[in-house]
Amino acid sequence: MSEDFYIWQDREVRCDGTKQTLMLRKGEESFDTINHIEDSRANNGEIGTFIFTNLRLIWLNNSAPERNLSIGYDTIEELTEKEYESKIKGNTKAIFIKSKSGSQRYQFSFNSVSESSPNLYNALNNILKIYDSGRLYRDLKFKGKIMNFKEKKLDLLLDEEISGKYKNISFVSSDQNYFGTFITSNIRIVWFCNNVENFNLSIPWIQISSINLQENEEYGKILIIKSQKLFGGNSYPFFSNDQKVINNLINEVLSLKKIYQSNPILGIDIRKLVDNNQFEKQKKNPNNEINTNSKQDNEKKKSKHDILYENLLNNMNDDDEIVDNNYINETANIYLLNDNKSDQVVLSDIVYNEELGLAVQKLPENVTIDSLWKIIN
């Protein structure tokens, strides 16, 4: 699996992306949209739309969709809700998102200007919980609780199907070899030691950079599975005393890798959101109610949201791109979070003051602009 299969959508923050950047990649689904959302950090007074996918939160400016944000769920470190003075709605509640992408830390804030909007904090917080619960679909896990050791039975993930199970496969370590069992599925490769509890390895296909056979003087042909560079670039060697088993194994994993690339399973399930009534909007808007009677019904609903999102993207031209690099840097800088504590207070409490017609730091309780002028005078 080549490095270009790296899925960045949940692991990066991108500002003012092109249409191609915003298009859903293989395995990505949009499952809900919320209209009338104000970007209260950089676009105060301008309305956009939230698009929730299984990998990221997208905000599109309705009047100028080339102004947009893509916030990967994996980048989100903190989510809070605070009172905010909106230029459009006045006093309301806004969500504040702190994210880290690469070496940069960002802060975003959004509020709804619609009275019928669902609670943004609850909506996003519930999605983040489900995203976090599905990390075994996306993250490499070493020495984890992934199975019933006594029964030597793997704890299957939702929608996971076992493809093959190979006994007598050894993991080649620097100090010794560990005798174990090798399992392949439509989501990952799993190996566990037969004699040592919790000595195991779970590698999702999404994490794998390459799969090769390598000649070894001591063991003959060994199977080398290498993780993506962005996630360590480590090599995991396996061998069997029966060389035919290794030959069969590499053919199977290469085939499964190809199948996974064509339709990756990324581990956030719309059925959990729907069945648990996570979105208050579904209660307030019965015309948008999702039927949960069958998986097929949910798939139809997901397709509907994909179509809605595609319609939003159609407002962008294929060549819509902000070519002014200075503008791109300035836009990203607006969202940058300074680690200085005093700066954090200023950034998180900026409000629009009608009397001045300016954005100012929120005043303490019972303090007015007029009283401040009196102090100066």
Characterization of this structure:
The protein is of the alpha+beta class. The chain has 2 domains: 7-134 and 268-337, Pleckstrin-homology domain (PH domain)/Phosphotyrosine-binding domain (PTB) (PH-domain like, Roll), CATH 2.30.29.30; 138-262, Pleckstrin-homology domain (PH domain)/Phosphotyrosine-binding domain (PTB) (PH-domain like, Roll). The chain is 25% helix and 34% strand. The chain is built from 9 helices and 20 strands. It has an 8-stranded antiparallel β-sheet with strand order 1-5-4-3-2-8-7-6. Strands 9-15-14-13-12-18-17-16 form an 8-stranded antiparallel β-sheet, with helices on one face. A hairpin with a 4-residue loop joins strand 10 and strand 11. It is elongated, with a radius of gyration of 25 Å. The termini are far apart. Residues 277-301, 322-328 and 341-348 have low confidence and may be disordered.
